[in-house]
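Aim 2 progress. For (2Fe-2S)-binding protein, the working sequence is reproduced below.
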Amino acid sequence: MSAETAHWEKVCQVGDIPDGGALGLEVGETPVALVRTGGEVFALHDVCSHAEVRLSEGEVYDHTLECWLHGSCFDLRTGKPTGPPATRPVNVYRVKIEGDDVYVSLSKE
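Predicted structure tokens for this construct:
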């Protein structure tokens, strides 16, 4: 599916996402963590694959989001775990910025 045919949903404005931090929200019924770091915005499933807590409450380091409960780390670009105890990735979603508006697509590529 191309970016032109994906379903994009406006979720917030760039300024709503803390620089170097995360914002948790719902896109439909899907929990999404938006992360702003290094001038980029990323979107991941907002539930840790290890302990099922909100990742958006964790810490951001470069391109890594660390779960606040047990310290599992996830790559913002791929959703793959980069530190234990998590062994399963979380979904990542496409993001586009138009002006100050942030859009997320939950559609598979």
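The mean pLDDT is 94. This observation will guide construct design in the next reporting period.
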